[in-house]
Amino acid sequence: MSDILAFVLNIALAIHIALIAVCVWRVWRGENVIDRLIGADLVTTLMLAVLVLIALILLNATYIDVALGLAALGFVSTIALAKYIADQQMF
Amino acid sequence: MTTFFQFIAILAVIAGTAFSLLGVLGFIRMPDVYTRLHATGKVSVFGVVLLLLATVALTPLSFGKGLVLIVLLVIGGPVTSHAIGSAAHRIGIPMKHAIRDDLTLKEVMAARDGDQGEGAGVDESAGVDDRAGASHVPTDSGAGGVG
Q: How far is B44 from chain A (nearest CA, A)?
């Protein structure tokens, strides 16, 4: 059962890294600014998933701390960018 | 018991990866900003949360941190989606295949009730019937056959 778990985790890590590449391509070739903002938010979320998968593969709980900080910073940065786009000012 | 927890972790990782894959597929294939937002909300709320459930089931070392991250994602994901959608509607991103837009219609009627003496900028028939109100809806005109 442990071999199957390691295989599934490695496949999931490869799939998530490929999805990050697709989202970065979509941010580069976006239609409008909101599309690129959605893409950047999705890149942050998928990077969170990659960090959780690395923590599962290495069985190291330090990567969960890194994922916690990335989740907080990504949340604040997306809210701030959406407010800046809507109001043309930050505060 | 370890085998049982590993089985739970395998199921959670497969389900979370499927949610992430479908979310990014919807982000590529959906025709509109708002529907794309609907698709990408599933990656944050279901994909990463299921991977974190696998972490909680597998490593008892990171139990509390995983639960805190699950709570943060479940609260923060809808807030982020609502902020992006509000910004998109406020800068006037068009909706594709939309018949009517109730939020723009309400704003037009509120603006008409506000400056009723002047009447400048908003024509009189806006919002009275649906076809006249649809001229203010930010739809693209040639969206009939676009798939």
A: 6
Domain map (residue ranges) of chain A: 2-87
CB-CB contact of B76 with A79 (8 Å)? no
| CB-nearest partner of B72 from A42, A55, A71 | A71
Q: The whole model's pTM is what? A: 0.80
A26 CB neighbours in chain B (<8 A) are 27-28
Q: pLDDT of chain B along its 147 residues, tens only?
A: 788 888 888 999 999 999 999 999 999 998 889 999 999 988 989 999 999 888 888 876 667 888 899 999 999 999 999 999 999 988 888 888 878 778 778 888 888 887 665 544 444 444 444 444 444 455 554 444 444
The ipTM assigned to this model is: 0.89
In chain B, what are the domain boundaries? 2-90, 102-136
